[in-house]
Design a protein that fits this description.
There is one protein chain. Helix content is about 45%, strand content about 20%. The protein is built from ten helices and seven strands. It has a seven-stranded mixed sheet, sandwiched between helices. Strand 1, helix 3 and strand 2 form a beta-alpha-beta unit.
């Protein structure tokens, strides 16, 4: 569910509007935490790679001179620019592009971020290398990746619903070769040239008024779910919806916190 299907733009294009509406409850606390690891000023230049609808771009733009956002989903970039315009933010540049081949000169940015984006790149080494390249000497990068699903009650609830509707969809097992392994995370950042690398664990908890509220949040912000809905057709989807909603109604107690955990990798480009 979290492999190659999410390394292309289609599911993110499909989910862009719902993602921008519901995902901030999950994503923005991690973006706020990421910004705490970087010293920014009104003169800072920032790049946000795999920016999505701008959950880091937008708060960063309120603090710095300029943010350049890039994402391979045209719909996500369109949503980001609309939100920026509505907020009166004029110091954001946003474009469709590939985080493995950034369209920026070297040694340009004071800080670089990739929040839950680089983790999906087909070639993570290129993603880290490009982020390193565009940072100025002394610049800082922060990259986030989810911890294993088994450590996230929120994700386990979501996959429990998936499995109830389609037993062929099982909760992903820990992948020791991915960024959900802190040792791999640190090694890949160091391999790109970053120094003083630190991998920080951060958790948040969300509550929902009832299972219907949880279902709506899942439905509107989950790229895997939107991709399934798009592929299986209306009749099959209606049957799966009933099974998923029944699972949530039976297993979620209204108001109960569900936590989710991520790792944030912080690295610094050495001064030359």
């Amino acid at each position: 569910m979290f492999g190659n299907p999410l390394a292309v733009a289609e599911p993110w294009d499909l989910v862009a509007d719902g993602y921008a509406e519901f995902a901030p409850a999950i994503m923005q606390p991690f973006s706020a935490r990421a910004l705490e690891f970087v010293s920014l000023s009104a003169r800072s230049q920032v790049v946000d790679v795999a920016a999505g609808p701008g959950m880091l771009t937008l708060p960063a733009a309120e603090r710095v001179a300029r943010v350049e956002a890039i994402d391979f989903s045209e719909s996500m970039i369109a949503r980001l620019m609309k939100t920026a315009a509505d907020a009166g933010l004029t110091n954001i540049g946003a474009q469709v592009g590939d985080g493995q081949a950034l369209p920026f000169g070297s040694d340009r940015f004071d800080a670089g971020f990739s929040m839950f984006g680089l983790m999906f790149f087909p070639d993570r080494a290129k993603g880290f290398a490009e982020l390193f390249r565009v940072l100025r000497p002394g610049g800082t990068a922060v990259v986030s990746s989810w911890a294993p699903v088994a450590e996230s009650p929120l994700m386990r609830m979501m996959f429990g619903a998936f499995t109830a509707a389609d037993p062929s969809i099982q909760e992903p097992q820990p992948n020791v070769l991915s960024l959900e392994n802190p040792e791999v995370f640190e090694s890949e950042m160091r391999g790109a040239g970053f120094e003083a690398v630190s991998i920080q664990r951060h958790s948040i908890a969300l509550t929902f008024s009832d299972s219907e509220h949880l279902w709506e949040a899942m439905l509107r912000s989950s790229a895997p779910m939107e991709l399934i809905r798009h592929n299986v057709g209306a009749e099959v989807w209606a049957g799966r919806t009933a099974l998923m909603k029944a699972f949530l109604a039976a297993n979620y107690r209204p108001g109960r916190p569900l936590s989710t955990t991520a790792y944030l990798g912080i690295g610094h480009k050495p001064e030359y």
